[in-house]
């Protein structure tokens, strides 16, 4: 019995899920501590800062990560060094460009005395330090994903998320430091993970001499589409925060309130992210071997099984939404509880639609159609921004922002299936049959 449990525990989907759940748990504890250490305005500024940082990180690493994972899958050690060295050099150049732009804009705002939300100001000044500190461990993620080494991925991520969580616990009970000190500590714990990845030669810094112009061009040519897709995907969520932050009516307090149901939604999406990480290399390998039927079967089974798993979770979240919101936000948000509960219940509908939307994009990338995936996400992003502007500046409603999320996701599902039907004749009805076949042969898949 123990041997079987150990065997199942090594299965890649479950390893990926455990890695993401462990990191997410630390992130959840950190989020809860921050809601209790910072008032609504300051917490809203922190959320805006970290959302912008996450978005720009996707811009930096989106150019190389998807293409690196695709190239690293099955590559020998010599080719791995070339790929890692090339991706590190590209990301280093991007870091220098972004540092110049951030500090230039910050300097102009200070010189002309232009007033903006302080969260934007914090980002412009402090992000270059954070970007330098997380460069190496982020670049190493490509290698971990390609090797399906989710245990190592988990340990590296916990080394910074866990340390940050420990700091926040000390800050809650003893230190009582403010937002600036919290930002600096976030920079420091990211540097710990990066130094570790550099020492272990996982990040590509020591392989810069193996970087070739040809490899850099290959990564960029594929990555320019996947980067656009990742940026647009991030904007689908983060544009809500950016646009709320521009509103004189909602402002930082609005960001803080919206962040709570959004965080709960992100937690529900963790399994999806984990399975997508394992599905992409598998589908890519099948597609590169010319086995389109096998590629489609993986797609059908993943979509069906994950949607089935999500249903009871989404239903339970809908029913107990009020308790979940209060648990995460604390008494500071008690006066906004009815509003935040309604927003989260809208998001539970969005969660049920996510597997179909996410895996149509993963499949388009796997069959080497990143351009079509980019078009799909760009349409969704454009629609979301329009809906957000209407929700924030016309209706002045956070609930309307959440409803817009459901609407653009439906649009993405329709467009994704439209492209896949044209390219490889994907049929929606096969999702059920392949999922049932997967369940019947679960023992074989785990083996």
Automatic annotation (TrEMBL):
The beginning of the lineage is: Bacteria, Pseudomonadati, Bacteroidota, Flavobacteriia, Flavobacteriales
Its name, as the record gives it, is Membrane protein involved in the export of O-antigen and teichoic acid
Q: Name one GO cellular component term.
A: plasma membrane
Q: How does it sit in the membrane?
A: Multi-pass membrane protein
Q: Does the keyword Membrane apply?
A: yes
> Transmembrane segments in this chain: where?
14-34, 46-63, 90-114, 120-137, 158-175, 299-325, 337-356, 377-395, 401-420
Its domain of life reads: Bacteria
Matching Pfam families: Polysacc_synt (PF01943)
Q: Where in the cell is it found?
A: Cell membrane
Query: What InterPro entries does the record point to?
Result: Poly_Biosynth_Transport (IPR050833), Polysacc_synth (IPR002797)
Q: Which UniProt keywords apply?
A: Cell membrane, Membrane, Transmembrane, Transmembrane helix
């Amino acid at each position: 019995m123990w041997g079987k449990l150990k065997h199942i525990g090594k299965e890649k989907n479950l390893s990926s899920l455990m890695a993401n759940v462990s990191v997410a748990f630390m992130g959840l504890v950190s989020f809860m501590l921050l809601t209790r250490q910072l008032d609504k305005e300051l917490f809203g500024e922190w959320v805006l800062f970290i959302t912008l940082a996450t978005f720009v990180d996707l811009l930096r690493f989106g150019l190389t990560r998807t293409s690196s994972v695709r190239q690293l899958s099955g590559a020998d050690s010599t080719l791995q060094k070339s790929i890692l060295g090339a991706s590190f050099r590209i990301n280093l150049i991007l870091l220098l460009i972004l540092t110049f732009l951030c500090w230039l804009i910050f300097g102009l705002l200070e010189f002309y005395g232009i007033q903006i939300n302080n969260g934007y100001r914090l980002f412009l000044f402090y992000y270059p330090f954070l970007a330098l500190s997380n460069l190496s461990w982020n670049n190493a993620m490509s290698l971990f994903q390609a090797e399906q080494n989710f245990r190592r991925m988990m340990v590296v991520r916990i080394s910074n998320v866990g340390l940050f969580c420990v700091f926040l616990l000390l800050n809650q009970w003893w230190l009582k430091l403010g937002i600036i000190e919290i930002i600096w500590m976030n920079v420091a714990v990211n540097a710990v993970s990066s130094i570790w990845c550099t020492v272990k030669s996982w990040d590509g810094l020591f392989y810069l001499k193996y970087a070739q112009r040809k490899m850099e061009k290959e990564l960029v040519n594929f990555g320019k589409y996947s980067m656009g897709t990742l940026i647009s995907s991030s904007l689908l969520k983060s544009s809500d925060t950016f646009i709320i932050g521009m509103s004189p009516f909602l402002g930082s307090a609005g960001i803080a309130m919206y962040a709570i149901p959004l965080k709960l939604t992100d937690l529900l999406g963790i399994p999806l992210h984990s399975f997508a990480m394992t599905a992409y290399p598998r589908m890519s390998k099948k597609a590169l071997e010319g086995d389109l039927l096998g590629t489609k079967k993986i797609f059908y089974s993943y979509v069906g099984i994950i949607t089935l798993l999500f249903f009871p979770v989404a239903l339970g979240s809908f029913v107990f939404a009020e308790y979940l919101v209060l648990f995460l936000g604390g008494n500071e948000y008690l006066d906004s509880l009815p509003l935040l509960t309604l927003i989260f219940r809208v998001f539970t509908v969005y969660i049920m639609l996510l597997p179909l939307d996410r895996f149509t994009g993963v499949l388009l990338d796997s069959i080497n159609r990143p351009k079509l995936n980019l078009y799909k996400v760009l349409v969704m992003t454009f629609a979301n921004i329009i809906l957000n502007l209407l929700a924030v500046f016309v209706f002045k409603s956070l609930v309307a922002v959440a409803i817009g999320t459901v609407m653009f996701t439906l649009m993405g599902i329709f467009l994704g299936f439209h492209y896949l039907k044209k390219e490889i004749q994907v049929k929606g009805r096969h999702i059920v049959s392949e999922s049932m076949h997967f369940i019947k042969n679960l023992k074989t898949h785990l083996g």
